[in-house]
Amino acid sequence: MAEEATGKTIELLRLERAKAERAFINQSTYLGKEARKLEKSKLLKKYNRLYAHAREVNCTNSDYELGFLAERGGSEEDREGILEKIKKTEEDCETKLTEVREIVQLSLWERYGRTELTTAMAEAEVYCEQALGTPVTEACNDAYEQQVSYARRSILEFMTAFKEWEEWIPNEARPTWEKRLQNLKEQRVSINTRKAEHLQMSKEEGTGKEGTLRTKPAEQAPCLKIKAISLPKFDGSRRDFHPWKKTWESLQKQGEPAGSKEARRLQLLESVDGRICRDLSLSTCQTAEDMFRILENRFGNKLTIALEIVEGLEKFPILTSDQPRKVIDMIQAIEKALTDLIELDYAGAIKNLLVIRSIERKLPETIKMSWLAFMTNRANGVTPDNHFDNLLRYLKDQEEILERAEQLNTPLKPERRSVEPRPNEPRRYASTKSSSKWGCVVCGEEGHGEKLFFCKAFKNLKPKDKLSAVERLGACKKCLGCHKDERDCSDTYLCRKQSCKKDHHFFLCQRGNATPRPNAGRHEWTERQQRFMSGLSPEAAEECKRAFTNVSARSLCTDKSAGMGHSAGEELPVMLMLLEVTANAGQKIGTLIDLASDTNYITHSAAKRLNLRSEKVTLLVHGVGGMVLKERTKKYQLRVRIKTPTGTQRAHELTCYGLEEIAKIRRTIKAEELKEFFPDVSLEDLHRPEQVELLIGHREGRLAPQRVKVIGDLVLWDGPLGKTVGGTHPDLFEEESVAARTSTNKHTLRGP
What we know:
By secondary structure, this protein is of the alpha+beta class. Among the domains are: 98 residues; 104 residues, no CATH class; 72 residues, no CATH class; 173 residues. Helices cover 47% and strands 11% of the residues. The protein is built from 22 helices and 13 strands. An eight-stranded mixed beta sheet has the order 1-2-8-3-6-5-4-13. It has a three-stranded antiparallel beta sheet with strand order 9-10-11, with no helix packed on it. The C terminus is likely disordered.
């Protein structure tokens, strides 16, 4: 459907397309009539706006075409007619834009461009002729220097004007002006040659006078040596690309006013890191413009740079009041990010409400509370439109306070006042030396204090000793925390065994380890397998069991005197990181995230269903222990949707290799079972697929999920592809088997 493919309904896409076409037609009609009446600045502004409308028409046409193709309704003739209409609209837009450009070009050239270039050229030619006609003698020394300076300045002014009007010069007049520019450059070379001759003659005349008349040597005046300015070097940082390019072009133009193309090319090669030159083969480019074009394609995508800037802000951790330097660094990083985004014309990326909320969450509690008080005060006029501007202004005011606080080594965290318990209220804090002031009641360390669940020594105690430590500390038996109000208690870590009343933390359970599920971790033999195994010798049957099992090694500790019970050797089934991924066209794909694999795989059946492009290849898979598997397969290009930090979605392309099968899932865990462990997560995010058709390895590092919540060995992950659950838990059981070839660490491609 159109809404799944583009995020908008087909009616909304049609309305946006019609609106863009209407705006383009109105602007082009206005320019066609009023081009000869508008001033230069207004005419250029109107034309740039027309060009923006034309791009919007093309974008809305593309979105409408994509949404229309995703729709399944309508006859084949109607679909072809609408597609033909879309194509005709694009052609008409291009034709109209060309016509209006010719009108604007003619108006600008006849009214402004030709006059400015003619005046600048005439002035430059006059000064050049005067400089060339001045005799090279000692008497004309000052006059010659003055004429040369005038000539050089007039040539530079003409070249600046020519660069400004170059794109608006009509095609029939362009050869004439280019020839006049070439003649002017030749005259500049002649002037430089005569300048050298003049300097040589002056030196010879000074030497002759010194031989006939002995004068007192003049005192040597002090001189100041200034280090030569070198062109900036580009090291491959996308964020620095556009500022580097702007600075480089400005300095290169000042140092090489002649504008030699070969010199500009060589200087640019020296200003780019050697590794980048080798990777992009920049030395094969003929001009500097070709090199800039290649660098622009690789490092100059403004949308990608804007996303990297916002993601850089997301990496800041949640700060506390005793870290003034880190808070100052974050404020300065926000200011720099805003400056860079304004340069990229993407200031709206940081003013997004999700980004603002993320920044506010990372602030220390004291600054956060004062900011909330400032924001809720109606006199300050904080609205959704100026939310970010007010936040940045407020943080700048706090920056000076933080600087002084750091110099005084004074945290901004206010002192906590002790609160006495009310009468007849159970006391949650012990009044003996077991309080957090003296460290942990078990190990004595001050690092975790009252937080017993962080104490390693506490975890190794027997259940009775753990309960005694909790009672000595006066902590809660449900969450092991010290709190005054029962509403602050969390039931996340309650014991979930069926025989317990669920009124205590799972660390305090007196019933020992949970009894294993029947048949958990093993599979029943089928009737056919039993008949086959019964016909083999005991040695052959044991060899078959070892060859066809997914468990590489298992060791059980049977010696109870070693300190572990029999249950210590039992293995719980591992839940793989499964989730459903949405393809670019809206189809759902059952996906396994395997960070131990360095390659992406997809089943041939899924690739055929998604109609993916393919290429025949030979795949060499290197596994553990020197295993090498050679297989003829296909390489596919798959585009999936991922979430961005701004809350939107974008397409991401994966390179996958085809397999007949990736994994089999015999029993999946229901989302309702996982909801008991993660009540804050929706059932849709906890849904696990029943069929695995795609495997994503650690090659796609930007898609790797991040750990959000941990309950024992059960982990909730979240990433650009969505939420997933992995790990083990005694109450959760899922049967699955993964193909051995997915555990690769290296692959080599060769031709078919």
